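Let us practice reading a record.
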Amino acid sequence: MKKYTASIDVMPHDNLLDPQGKAVTGAMGNLGLPEISGVRIGKHITLHVEAADQKTAEAKVDEACKKLLANQIMEKYSFRVEEVEG
């Protein structure tokens, strides 16, 4: 078995309100950063997976995202899987 590291980004769907992002966007002006807008807040997840090959590792990460890590009704996700050397 090979070892892989996955980097996963989970974000609210573009068409959904992001109250946390809206609050941060509003605070930017108070911090002297009015040129920053459109803040969206999500989460970044890293994990390790053992699999026979890259394709299998990616399938396992995708399954984890669909079953637990992302609420597909409200969130979208993307990920990158890289083999760990050594």
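A brief commentary: Helices lie at 19-30, 54-69.
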